[in-house]
Amino acid sequence: MASANKVLSIAAGEVGYSRWDDPQAGTKYGRAFAEKVGNSYYGNSGVPYCCMFVWWVLDRAGMTVPGMPTASCTALRNACANAGMIVPKMSAQPGDIVIFDWPGSKDGANDHVGFVELNRSTYIQTIEGNTSSGASGSQGNGGVVARRTRDWSVVQDVIRPAYGSDKPLPDALKKYTDLDAEAWYIDPLDKAVRAGIVHGNADKLRPNDTATRAEVAAMLANALKL
Fold it and tell me: How far apart are CA 145 and CA 129, in angstroms?
């Protein structure tokens, strides 16, 4: 399961994208969405893409959220509300999805969506697709991916996805992260054999089996000199 940090890292990497500079029809997010749902309409120019941007980021992070894939802020909000994922908006934290309600909007709700990057107490910092880079221009259909600050007054709802943990690897294991799943143990096993903690016989007898509780106890006894 994806972490909030992974989602925000992907979203941050898109800051600066502009549909006005895209050489192809529509947007990169709309084209991907169109392919995903099998409807070419979403790949056309002029289709609002804020919700498709949120889907695109979550999809690339390997994260699933109720209501997705959808290009509708209302459908996303309702699905997540039904799943009990709406949290008090002032408790917003990095990685949360935020639904905006612009003042004076005709529908009164579900106008725009983005990611919470930081909760600054008196306002939030966000990453949004299909906004403008500043206060001038359309806030919900400006065509660019931008980092923004938003007042609480325009926040309708905050959705909290069920992210996984961002716990870091212990330093002793970090050097093994580039090895494949069948090779990470080679160096530590060799060291353990040379130190007399294990004998290495399992290499020949049953190299793919897991250790029994008795074997683990023996290893610990040897390692700790019990």
Answer: 4
pTM above 0.85, yes or no: no
pLDDT digits (tens, 9 = 90+) for 75-106: 999 999 999 999 999 999 999 999 999 887 65
Q: What is the pLDDT of residues 39-74, one digit of tens each?
A: 999 999 999 999 999 999 999 999 999 999 999 999
127 vs 37: CA distance, rounded Å: 24
> How many whole angstroms separate alpha carbon 141 and alpha carbon 50?
8
CA 102, CA 218: separation in Å to the nearest integer? 65
3-class secondary-structure state, position 56: helix
